[in-house]
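Notes continue from the previous slide.

Worked example: a multi-chain complex. Inputs as given:
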Amino acid sequence: MSQDVESKVKSIIVDKLGVDEEEVTHDANFTNDLGADSLDTVELIMEFEKEFDISIPDEDAENIATVGNAVEYLQDKV
Amino acid sequence: MSDRRVVITGIGALTPVGKTAPDFWNGLISGKSGAQPIEHFDTEDFPTKFAAQIEDYDELDYFDRKEARRLDKVCQYALIAAEEAMQDTGLDLEEIDKDRVSVIVGTGIGGMITFYEQSISFHEHGPRGVSPFFIPMLIPDMVAGQISIKYGFKGPNFCAVSACATGSHNIGLAYDSIKSGQCDMAVSGGSEAPVSRIGVAGFTSMRAMSNRNDDPQTASRPFDKNRDGFVLGEGSAILFLEEYEHAKARDARIYGEIVGYGFSADAHHITAPDPEGEGVILAINRALEAADIEPTDVDHINMHGTSTPLGDIAETNSIKKVFGDHAYQINHNSTKSMTGHALGAAGAMESLATVLSTYHDMIPPTINYDTPDPECDLNYTTNEAVSRNVTYALNNAFGFGGHNTTIVFKKFEE
C-alpha cells in the first residue's frame, strides 16, 4: 500500500508540474526544486484529494512542501 | 489626433488555411478551404459535423507539457501567432524599450473549452473539483496578459471584447495607442478556440451555421444564393504595429499602413443585422473620414461576409449606399469562404489578408460562388484571385451585440 501511495503521488507530480520522474526525489521542494507556483501547489493538493478520496484541510496543506511531506501525510491518511 | 503614422512591420498567423502568415496568404490566394469534419469529439448528435480547423494541431509542437496544460487553446493560438510576428519584425528584444510596447489582443469568448471542462468537473466533484487555473485560463484578457509576460512588454495591456468584431477593435485600439503617443509599438490582433462540443452546440441552436455535412469545403459560400449559414473557424492572427519613424530608423520591412478606422453600433438587435445597415454605413463613413479619403479612393473591401442569408445582403446594401456606382468598381471578397468564421480572430485574420492585399497587389477570392443572388450583386472576386493595384483597402468586421468596425489600410509609401 505505502509503495502504491508513493508511486501515485509521484506520477501526479510528474503530470501536473511537467517534470521528469528523476527530479521527483523525496526531498524535492515543490516551489524551490520543481518550479511550482502558488496555483500549482493548490492544484497538487486538489489532485491528491481526488486521487485518494480524502479532504486535506488548508492548515495541513500549508505543511506539505516537499514530495516526502506529501507521501508521509497521505500514507498516514489513507 | 497627431501626425504620427502607424505601419505594420510584423505578421503572424495560425489558421485553418495555413499555420504561418506566408502559408495563410498562399492558402487564400490558391482558394483553399480549411473546412474539415470534426474528429476530436463525437458529432453524432450535432446537426453540424464540421468546422474550419487548424490542420493537425498538436500543442506539444509549440509548448512543453506544463505550459500547454496551463494555457487554454485560445492563449496557445495567440502565443504561436505572436511569436511568428515578433520573429518577423527582426527586432532585437534587448535593444528596444519594452515599456513602449502595448499588447492589445482579444478574443470574443475566452477559454470556452476550459469553462466547459471545469463545469463538468464542478458537477462531478463539487467546488473542490474546480482547478485553480480555471479563472486564469477562462478570462479573455489573459491572451494579452500571456503575450506581455512572455516578452516583458509593459505598455498598455488589455483586450476589447466585441464578439466577431473583436480582432478589428483590438487592432484599432492598438493603432490609437501608438497614434496618441502612449507607446511606439504594439502587438495587436485576435484569437479564438471555439471548436468544442458546447461551442458547436451553441451556434447550431442559434441556427446560424451551415449544415452542409456532405461537402464541408463548399459550405462557406458568402453571397452565393444557396448559402445556408457560417462555418465555425478557429485560430489567431497578429499584426505588429510600429510608429513609422521608429520603423524607418531601423530600416524595417513595412507591409502597409493603417490610416484610420470607424467604429459604430447597430442599436438594433442582439444577433440580427439591421436590414437598413445604418450602423455599418456609419462605421464605413467614419473610417473614410478618419483616413481623409473619398469613397472613390477605395480599391478593395474585405467584407465581413459570413455566408448567412441576411448578413450578406445587409452588408452589400450598406456598401452600395456609401459607395454608389463606385461600389461596382471595388474588388470585394470574403476570405471567410476559406478560413471559416473565427469569431474574435476573424477581424484579425481579415485585417492581415487586407494589408497583404495592399502589399502584394493581389486580392484573394471568395470561393464556392456558383449561383448569383440578385440581392448580392457586387464584384466579390469570385473563385479566382485577382491581381490589381490596391492602394486603399477596407476591412469590415461586425459582432453579435451590433458592434461594427471598418479599418482602412493603405499601401505603404514613404
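Summary box: The mean pLDDT of chain A is 93. The two ends of chain A are 9 Å apart (CA to CA).
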